[in-house]
Specification:
mainly alpha, 2 helices, 47% helix, transmembrane helix, TOM core complex subunit Tom6, membrane, transmembrane
């Protein structure tokens, strides 16, 4: 039996390499939004967090709106 080496390319366990864009006129907030919120490697996790927060506050709004219908009369 012979062992095979993995094909050259990006590792599935490492972070993808991307080039940083440095704009001297960019504020710290806009740099944070670009690098942490809208970065392609962070987007799936951020969408999961946004979905969870939306469901949580949607549940609160639903109970406040229709909560009296859950109490037996």
């Amino acid at each position: 039996m012979s062992s095979r080496r993995a094909a050259p390319g990006p590792s599935p366990f490492g972070a993808p390499q991307r080039r940083a864009i440095h704009d001297p006129n960019e504020s710290a907030f806009s740099r944070f939004v670009r690098e942490q919120i809208f970065a392609p490697e962070n987007l799936p996790g951020n969408i999961s967090i946004l979905t969870a927060v939306t469901v949580f506050f949607g549940g609160i709004a639903a109970i406040r709106t229709w909560g009296d219908l859950m109490i037996p009369a």
